[in-house]
Structure formats: C-alpha cells, structure tokens
Amino acid sequence: MSSFYADSMLGKLSRYLRFLGFDTLYRTTESVDEMLQVSEDDDRIVLSRSRDVFQSCSKRKIQTLLISNVDVSGQLKEIKDNFNANFVYPPLKMRCSVCNGDLKEKSKLDILNRIPEGTAMNYDDFWECSKCFQIYWLGSHWEDIKKTISEL
C-alpha cells in the first residue's frame, strides 16, 4: 500500500486517505523542502496541486502526482487511476484523520466518559488514535465517504 505526503492545498483529500487506511502525512507548517526531504527519505508519493512542487519533485526524482481536480472524489479518482489504489468501504484499516496515527479498537465502556451521550446510545464500535487519543465511530459522515467511494 502506498504512503503519501499531501501538500497544504489537499487537507480534505488527506483526511479521506487516512480514513481509507492510507498512511498520509499532510503539510501544514513544514516547508516544501522539508516535505520533499521526508518524502525522499520515507519513499512517500507527493500529492500536490502546485506545478512548482511537482517540478521540484521531478528534479529530485521523487514520485509525485499533480492533482488537477478540486473536488475530493475527482482527486481520489486521480490517485486510483495513477497508482491502482484500492479504495474499499468499509476500509480494512483506518488511520486518524487528525494526526495519521494508528487506530485501535476500544470498548464502549473504556471511553464512555469521552463520547456524547447520544453517540453512546446509537453506536457500539469505537476506535482510539494511538498518538493523539481522538475517539472515532462510524457516524453519519461515513455515508458521505461511502457515497464518494462508490462513485469512483
């Protein structure tokens, strides 16, 4: 499975890729040079909407994809077409949409005091990020993700 480094213009795409189990870093405060160095060191594919970043990657022989679509479904299709990425719903593995950490299953009892009461009443399956401790469940936003994936 490919790992990615998404440029600062691709925040929504990076969250989707993480939800779908892809190891995806997202450039926020790092310089372009830092992003390229990490990508080179870790063998990551750079995703960018910037021609300058694309050209810098080409010069350094870093695998890259110049994303042309502005909507996330079009962006995912570009990744699927260029890298034979297999987007499945439900994903076999998910990553934290905030920090890219691994998600570990948690029992409802263990996290009951950290989730809204309505969530506790309506959902039984929960995950916690091993890095930032964010709690996840398959809420209504997953219908949007499922719809996006089905259109690819």
CATH topology of the largest domain: Rossmann fold
- What's the arrangement of strands in the largest beta sheet? 2-1-3-4
Share of residues in strands: 15-25%
CATH class wording of the largest domain: Alpha Beta
Q: Give the overall silhouette.
A: globular
Spatial gap, N to C terminus: 18 Å
Provide the succession of SSEs.
EHEHEHEHEHHEEH
Largest sheet at a glance? 4 strands, parallel
Show unreliable segments. Answer: none
Structural class, from secondary structure content?
alpha/beta
Q: What is the CA-based Rg, rounded?
A: 17 Å
Give the rounded overall mean pLDDT. Answer: 93
Helix tally equals 7
Strand elements, count: 7
Helix content: 40-55%
CATH architecture of the largest domain: 3-Layer(aba) Sandwich
Quick summary of this structure?
The chain is an alpha/beta fold. It has helices at 11-19, 32-42, 51-59, 72-83, 108-111, 117-122, 141-150; strands at 4-6, 24-26, 45-48, 64-66, 103-106, 126-129, 135-136. It contains seven helices and seven strands, in the order E-H-E-H-E-H-E-H-E-H-H-E-E-H.
Structure description:
The protein is an alpha/beta fold and 152 residues long. It has 2 domains: 4-83, Rossmann fold (3-Layer(aba) Sandwich); 103-150, no CATH class. The chain is built from 7 helices and 7 strands. The chain has helices at 11-19, 32-42, 51-59, 72-83, 108-111, 117-122, 141-150, and strands at 4-6, 24-26, 45-48, 64-66, 103-106, 126-129, 135-136. The strands form 2 sheets. The chain has a 4-stranded parallel beta sheet with strand order 2-1-3-4, with helices on both faces. It has a 3-stranded antiparallel beta sheet with strand order 5-6-7. α1 (11-19) links the parallel β1 and β2. The longest helix is centred in the middle third of the chain and has 12 residues, at 72-83. The chain is globular. The two termini are 18 Å apart. The model has no long low-confidence stretch (mean pLDDT 93).
